[in-house]
Amino acid sequence: MELVDPLLAGDRLSLARALSAVENEDETGRAVLNQLFAHTGRAHRIGVTGAPGTGKSSLVNQLARHFRQPPAGEAPHRVAIVAVDPSSPFTGGAILGDRIRMRDLAGDPGVFIRSMAARGSLGGLANATASVVQVFDAAGFELILIETVGAGQAEVDIARLAHTTLVVEAPGLGDDIQAIKAGILEIADILVINKADRPGVESTERALRGMLDLAHPMPHVFRHHGRLEMAPAPPTPPPNQAFWMPPILRTVATEGVGIPELAEAIAGHRTHLEKSGEWARRERSLLQTELESLLLETLFTRWRSTISEAQFQSVLDKLQDRRLSPHQAIQDLLNGRQP
Amino acid sequence: MELVDPLLAGDRLSLARALSAVENEDETGRAVLNQLFAHTGRAHRIGVTGAPGTGKSSLVNQLARHFRQPPAGEAPHRVAIVAVDPSSPFTGGAILGDRIRMRDLAGDPGVFIRSMAARGSLGGLANATASVVQVFDAAGFELILIETVGAGQAEVDIARLAHTTLVVEAPGLGDDIQAIKAGILEIADILVINKADRPGVESTERALRGMLDLAHPMPHVFRHHGRLEMAPAPPTPPPNQAFWMPPILRTVATEGVGIPELAEAIAGHRTHLEKSGEWARRERSLLQTELESLLLETLFTRWRSTISEAQFQSVLDKLQDRRLSPHQAIQDLLNGRQP
Prior knowledge:
Two copies of one chain form a homodimer. The first copy, chain A, has helices spanning 4-8, 12-24, 27-36, 56-68, 98-105, 122-138, 153-159, 175-181, 201-215, 259-276, 278-304, 309-320, 326-334; strands spanning 44-50, 79-84, 111-116, 143-149, 164-169, 190-193, 221-224, 227-230, 248-250. Chain A is an alpha/beta fold. In chain A, strands 3-2-4-1-5-6-9 form a seven-stranded parallel beta sheet, sandwiched between helices. At the A-B interface, helix 3, helix 6, helix 7, helix 8 and helix 11 of A face helix 3, helix 6, helix 7, helix 8 and helix 11 of B.
């Protein structure tokens, strides 16, 4: 494979070609993923999601800059940004503040930005994102920021790819949006209140804390003689405990305020994942999902090649006329009978 | 099957039980769907989607009332309402204004309301919704209103179930929400501006019309000697033409304003679908999707029963250690070799 070796050596053009190939899910793409697989499993995948207007793109931008120019004593990381917009499946306009981003990060060979054009279905988008992330991982990007807009099932499915998920809020976005976001809070590892210099930041933080307490019951509330009681201080968690209480951080991304603290919280979450064994568990569950979806695809392709298009259409005819039920059709198709 | 006969005879308790069974996707559910299939294919499935705050629930409510008490000379229809909330996958709180709805429509045996609890994945939710809709169809509900909240890929997937999709807007919801909704406009068969007594209705309509023109190029703009020209009047469309320009209607659902006109537009769209052959085409494509997803499930279950859990876990071990790539694992697993 002529793409793979230069890609592994750091060639950006080969990387861009490999990304296009895996996005297209063509033969080359499959071969590339196959050959790159042995080099994957090292990157820290960081999901960043939140409603429009929260300033996610600026935040991702600033995080990338911070990771490129860390405080003295820390090594700079190579950073990939994958910007996914599942809310606009038809127009394919997955731009997400690219122009601002370009101006800011352009010319740095340690940064690579990829916008994902939306797919016909959500499953397609999540698969393509997973493939793109694998390519970046193999290409040696230690940090991969996966940015999605919104707060629906789409974002949840994409968040499953991440080791660490940031949910971004901003003061004064209105009650409707708060209500939508109640579900996504439960996938947050770190909560960020961006635009924290705006009025209303206190009440946003209060609301988030209230929702968090519902989602993650505090460990220092316990039952004593059948009554709920509050411990005088949170008990020290046992070592390697899998419990993680999402911190709430305030940032003003456009001015860089709070970014070092956020980067520290991300590193802290990584340490937590590794110590608790959760890192390995998430990797395994992701690999299992990938294996199963590849299996399904292969099984279907193999089966489909055993019957003709005319046969398949004739089954559809009978379904449409209600002469067969889908279950009967399956039994007949799979047992080789002419339905 | 003890549920099916009373269900077909109109028994509500059997209907409720059948809905739970198909939602649970258990043995009973499969058997029910299998036996009901011959009775499906008659209902008009109407999708209603829009952002929170547009008043979708009241609109669905009022439409249901209208279909139950149509103008003199028209027969009342049996109406099912399926309320789906894909934005909150964890809390399972798919309520969508149920309390208001209950008060309004309670006690009418020609109306049945079902709220869909969210699933672990979007595919799961879309499948469960499809099954519930089939049960209502078989049970003789001529109109099935499928209500979803939001404007993401989730709503698009669920809208694929509908013959006619209403996208609901309201004045003054802010630019962010307008931006999210650009994609979903392209699946709209009818656009509704609800809360049309609010200020800003003119500019909302202008914005929608602008987006519509982009999504559906007007048929009366044509090329003449290489230049774009506007026809003096829209040419009469040829009979059976598949073109449908989504109308924009104004309603004030809480006061019943605009509801008869909306019901008329829905009936008009049905006529258009039938005359253009699009109705049959949509039915067939839905059946094909269903058949394929059932095939996948069956193929996977059959294959999975041929290998032991220990074998499967050992493959995962090798993947996690990068000793096998997913593609190699598949080849070995499917060809019966011990990987």
